[in-house]
Every structure is written in C-alpha cells, then in structure tokens.
Amino acid sequence: MFSDTTVGMGHAGSRIVETGVADCDVVPEAFLDLHDLMKCCSVSTSSAVIRRHLFAEVGGFDETLAEAEDWDMWIRIAAAGYKVADSRKCSWNIRFTLATIAG
Known about the structure:
Layout: E1 7-18, E2 21-26, E3 31-32, H1 34-39, E4 49-50, H2 52-57, H3 69-79, E5 83-96, H4 98-102
Parallel strand pairs: 1-5
Antiparallel strand pairs: 1-2, 1-4, 3-5
C-alpha cells in the first residue's frame, strides 16, 4: 500500500460483533477521495496509519475541535492531494455488548 507515494494514509476494514457472532463486515472502497470522505467518515482511528511527514504537513489533529478531530484530519489529507487507501481486509473487531451500548 505505501509503495505508492501518492498514498498518504492507509486503514483497514472492521468487523462488527455482537453476542460473539460476526454480524457485519465493514470494508470501504479501495481508495477514498475527498468527496468520499466529505460524505461520511468510513475510516477508524483504530486502524489508521499515516506517513510521519504528512501528519506534520497537514497540522495533525485539530485539538480545538470538540469531536471528529480524526475525520477532519482525514479530509485535510485528501484535500492535500494524497490517496487514502484501504487494505481491503477486516483487521479488527468492534464489539458491542449491553454494557457498551447502555454506557
């Protein structure tokens, strides 16, 4: 994925698990562009990897934002002309339980 120098950020899909059963695999498109990221945030911070120089180049996380600091940075990465690439694999699980939902 990172052999392509136009890829600034990579991420992986996720598997939503409830009651021990995999209910849904979430695998975004192979490449997300600015338009895709403006519609919805399909990148999870838990799976994101970013080129070190790019983190500084786009200004890192905007800590003045109350929420969505990660989504804001993904948009700035795409706006700077870099590709956001997906590994096309579910590499991590999101587990929902009554405790996490009721929270």
